[in-house]
Amino acid sequence: MVSTPLLWLFILALPIACIAWTVTHEEVFREPREFCKRCSEQSRTLLRRKFFYLFTCEYCFSHYVTIALLIITKYKLLFDDWRGYLISGFSLVWIANIYMSIFALLRVDLKKERAEAEHAEKQNK
Question: Which pLDDT score is estimated for 34?
């Protein structure tokens, strides 16, 4: 039955998107993210710069969250061997990043509306 694995694809991408977005954008992880950003810009070795960059980019970080989720859930898509993990991994990353893009657009709209409301409120005073 193909519909169940496809349903799981869209469900499992939600926590991946949530974790990746939270670590790479939200205030609760600001200090570690700023440290990683500094290290990614100032480290002497390429390997160290790239390692720390992974924690500042939601797309990059979502790959590692996906790997962890695949280990925990053993989710496979289309095939029951290593190919199923490979296909499900890239599929989950892709769907999770679509979710994060939609969320980013919604946040921009909300910030714009909030700024316009604050501006209108100041003009009314």
Answer: 93
pTM of the model: 0.79
Closest CA to 103 of 42, 25, 4: 25
CA distances for 46 relative to 51, 53, 57, 88, 107, angstroms: 8, 10, 16, 30, 33
In a domain, 109, yes or no: no
Domain count for the chain, please give it. Answer: 1
Residue 120 located in a structural domain: no
End-to-end CA distance of the chain: 62
Residue 45 lies in a domain: yes
Q: What is the tens place of the pLDDT at every residue in 43-79?
A: 999 999 999 999 889 999 999 999 999 999 999 999 9
